[in-house]
Amino acid sequence: MFFIFAVWLVIVVGMYIFQRKLQYFPDTGYVRPEDIGLENVEEVVVKTRYTRRLLAWYVPAPEGRPTILYFHGNGGSLATRAGRLEFFREQGYGVLLTTYRGYSGSSGSPAEFPIKMDALYFYHWLQARGVPEKDIVIYGESLGTGVAVATALGHHPGALVLEAPFSSAVDVGALRFPWLPVRLTMKDRYENTKYIGEITAPVFIVHGELDRVIPVHLARKLFDAARQPKEAVWLRDAGHNDLYSKGAFELIARFIERHR
């Protein structure tokens, strides 16, 4: 019995030390928009208080149209979201497609606090470019929903869109590793449910009922905690990574148009 406990304790210590390796999967490769055929997309390279070199891709909105401030999930890169940038541009929206420290050629290593501070930098960067708050749509995808909720807190964007969100990263981790003391040891917790009730912007959630990465009941928990106005669509035949092929693009665009 003591041997089993000792092995468990070693595993707990090891996972505590290396937990961010299990939470973030950055594609570190640097790609310019033109390298993948994107035209008229500005590469933004900034230095923030917490990150020496941080990249984003920017398409200005036509006058009077919304700008999507996009926070991606825990894997991939700017390049893997190129199709989403193109979709929103085709709808007549501006897009600021951001990334995180350690991703897509940005410096540093990912962690919750500096990622959230960098996100606020980009929110204010848009305002400095002349984009009114009412025209900013904060968009979070998967892990990026934790960044999006934090960015919307205390601000007045036009809308908040959450794709495949979670109640908290702790809830996700506890489901995935029920034999570990995740609720005590997790560092980057992304407590969405704790904060979403303070957000006054219209909230839209889209989630797949077949999602095995972030079970749909965690998104329902988040939706219940949000204040009105709020809308949600639960796609019966969608999982975590196929929401757009199941119509999420169009649902999101219609929501944005209703709340402009």
Description:
The protein is of the alpha/beta class. It has one domain (2-258): 3-Layer(aba) Sandwich (Rossmann fold). It is 36% helix and 18% strand. The protein contains ten helices and ten strands. The protein has helices at 2-17, 19-23, 82-90, 112-128, 144-152, 169-176, 182-185, 192-196, 216-225, 248-258, and strands spanning 25-26, 42-46, 54-59, 67-71, 75-76, 94-98, 136-141, 159-163, 203-208, 230-235. Strands 2-3-6-4-7-8-9-10 form an eight-stranded mixed β-sheet, with helices on both faces. α4 (112-128) packs across α5 (144-152). It starts with a helix and ends with a helix. 42% of the residues are buried.
Q: How do the strands line up in the largest sheet?
A: 2-3-6-4-7-8-9-10
Instruction: Report the helical percentage.
Output: 25-40%
Provide the low-confidence segments as ranges.
none
Query: Structural class from helices and strands?
Result: alpha/beta
CATH class: Alpha Beta
Give the amount of beta strand, in percent: 15-25%
Distance between the termini: 62 Å
Number of strands: 10
Q: Please name the CATH architecture.
A: 3-Layer(aba) Sandwich
CATH superfamily: Alpha/Beta hydrolase fold, catalytic domain
Largest sheet properties: 8 strands, mixed
> Order of SSEs, N→C?
HHEEEEEHEHEHEHHHEHEH
Number of spatially distinct domains: 1
